[in-house]
Amino acid sequence: MSIKVTIDGKEVSARDGDNIIDVAAENGVYIPSLCYVKGKPCLGTCRTCSVKVNGNVMAACTIPVAEGMEIEVNEPEVTDMRKALVELLFSEGNHNCPSCEKSGRCELQATGYEVDMMVSRFPYRFTPRVVDHSSKTIFLQRDRCIFCQRCVDMIRDEKTGEKIFSIKGRGTHARIEIDTDLANEMSPQQVREASDLCPVGCIIDSTQGYDDPIGKRKFEVKTIRDRALERTHR
Ligand code: SF4
Ligand code: SF4
């Protein structure tokens, strides 16, 4: 059923039940996101898609549109909130882009550019995080994990459906883990899928790195904003 909502004051048509982030993209309005993948169940973990809905701040990927809904995306307070959330992710992890295999292909880095981030307003924590080299197929560069849970929910053993990745601990003790035995059974294609799905450079294909030349890397060819609006996979 078609309904009407407003986005930044402009009335648009939408399919009842579609989420705000998809409706906005279909109408040319970019909302950043780091955990949401079009066509997959919403995770709602990163909150970088926060917008105002009828005056209240909500994560756009988690909320289905409803008749008469008033959505504010490019409103100063919530725009700054999204920027602050991106800055927090940089200050919580250890991100050294020039030496990162994902640089130029990284959704966090590309989103940092989109929200006009120059430096984080929050103190950098420099938390020590141990790299996991235990599997033959993947190494986990934990410094860069933003705990989006994409890998946990969307990458499974192809035979048994068991989860390969998990998050252990909470808060400052949270840590991404990999089941080494299951990871060793992953096909090269599944390893590449997991590495591409990770929005940052945490899941690294141990057989490949720096494979795209500078200037031809994913977000140098087309911005994350344009990809989001085209609904192509990031
Ligand atoms: S994961 Fe992204 S933001 Fe972090 S160091 Fe690598 S390129 Fe930079
Ligand atoms: S390893 Fe990557 S995909 Fe998995 S939770 Fe961390 S950032 Fe997300």
What are the defining features of this structure?
234 residues; alpha+beta; Ubiquitin-like (UB roll); Alpha-Beta Plaits; 2 domains; five-stranded mixed beta sheet; two-stranded antiparallel sheet; globular; binds iron/sulfur cluster
Description:
With 234 residues, the protein is an alpha+beta fold. It folds into 2 domains: 2-74, Ubiquitin-like (UB roll); 87-221, Alpha-Beta Plaits (2-Layer Sandwich). The chain contains 8 helices and 9 strands. The chain has helices at residues 20-26, 76-92, 107-114, 150-154, 180-184, 188-197, 218-221, 224-230, and strands spanning 2-7, 10-15, 50-53, 56-59, 70-72, 138-140, 165-168, 175-178, 203-205. The radius of gyration is 18 Å and the shape is globular. The mean pLDDT is 95. The protein binds iron/sulfur cluster (2 copies).
Question: How many strands, which pairing sense, and closed or not: the largest β-sheet?
Answer: 5 strands, mixed
Helix/strand structural class: alpha+beta
Task: Identify the CATH class of the largest domain.
Answer: Alpha Beta
* Separation, N- and C-terminal Cα atoms: 29 Å
Residue share in β-strands? 15-25%
Number of strands: 9
Q: What is the C-alpha radius of gyration, as a whole number of Å?
A: 18 Å
Mean pLDDT value? 95
Percentage of residues assigned to helices? 25-40%
Q: Provide the list of bound ligands, each named once.
A: iron/sulfur cluster
Please trace the helix and strand order, writing H or E for each element. EEHEEEHHEHEEHHEHH
Name the overall outline. Answer: globular
Number of helices: 8
Strand order of the largest sheet: 2-1-5-3-4
Give the CATH architecture of the largest domain.
2-Layer Sandwich
The name CATH uses for the topology of the largest domain is Alpha-Beta Plaits
Regions with little confidence, pLDDT below 50 for 5+ residues: none
Number of domains: 2
